[in-house]
Amino acid sequence: MNKPTPRDTVLYGPTYLIKLPDDAVEPPRPVDLLVTVNEISDVPVEVFIQCDDSGIYQWVALVSVFTTRLLRDGHPLEKLAEEMLEIHCPHTRHIIPGTMEWSTSLVARIGRTLKEHMENKNDKPDDDTTAGN
User: Fold this and answer.
1) 11 vs 47: CA distance, rounded Å
2) pTM to 2 decimal places
3) How many Å apart are CA 48 and CA 104, to the nearest integer?
4) Helix (H, G, I), strand (E, B), or coil: what is residue 2?
5) How many Cβ atoms from other residues are within 10 Å of residue 38's Cβ?
6) Residue 70 phi/psi, 5° resolution?
7) Mapping DSSP to helix (H, G, I), strand (E, B) and coil, where does residue 124 land?
8) How many CA atoms lie within 13 A of 22 on its CB side?
9) How far apart are the first and last CA of the chain?
10) Could you read off the pLDDT of 94-111 as tens digits, one per residue?
11) What is the largest CA-CA distance in the chain?
12) What is the pLDDT of residues 7-30, one digit of tens each?
């Protein structure tokens, strides 16, 4: 068993707002999720997901707790995001607002956000390579 990554007293990470269409949950209502990815030395170690909707709160909290535990055990966020993208649910699939793209579930939507976080992070140039440009 891997030794979990110790947690610093203060961590920083971006927070992403996921706005769900009203018909993404039953009964239809507006729901927003806040997803925060905290890192230590540029490595994701925590994912917090906030949701004020009591109908989905407990499973959202479970996704957050399990994802954080797996990250601390050394599992890469990219792989966890890929697994989330494979979750399909006929009740929560929806078109992502502002796009024509489908999300196969709310869990897949969280996975998409985490995947985009890693892609954007990996696309950023190192500070050393941009010096003097």
Assistant:
1) 11
2) 0.85
3) 21
4) coil
5) 19
6) -65, -40
7) coil
8) 2
9) 46
10) 999 889 999 999 999 999
11) 55
12) 788 899 999 999 988 888 888 888
